[in-house]
Design brief:
This protein is mainly α. It has one domain (1-81). Helix content is 21%, strand content 0%. It has helices at residues 2-11, 26-32. The longest helix is centred in the N-terminal third of the chain and has 10 residues, at 2-11. The radius of gyration is 14 Å and the shape is globular. The protein starts with a helix and ends in a 49-residue tail after the last helix.
Length: 81
């Protein structure tokens, strides 16, 4: 999932990109973007909107940088404790 996002950010100059995918990709995506609950459960027919704001930094792709800023937690998707 990180490679997928890196590819979008590196090769797509659009201001907004929309991606629709199966639920099996949700948890890896949440993990990569630093969501506090990367083990979110989604049932058949449900949808989850995930908004990602990226800031370009100089350096090589795949390098280790600052960890993502944790998302504010809501009552539905709060961190697993």
């Amino acid at each position: 999932m990180k490679g997928f996002l890196d590819d979008i950010f590196e090769n797509d100059a659009s201001l907004v990109v929309s991606v629709t995918t199966h639920g099996v990709n949700l948890n890896p995506l949440l993990g990569v973007v630093g969501h506090p609950n990367s083990m979110f459960t989604i049932a058949t027919g449900q949808a989850v909107a995930v908004l990602v704001r990226a800031t370009r930094v100089e350096g090589e792709l795949g390098g280790v940088g600052e960890p993502p800023v944790p998302a504010k937690v809501c009552g539905v998707c709060g961190p697993v404790g």
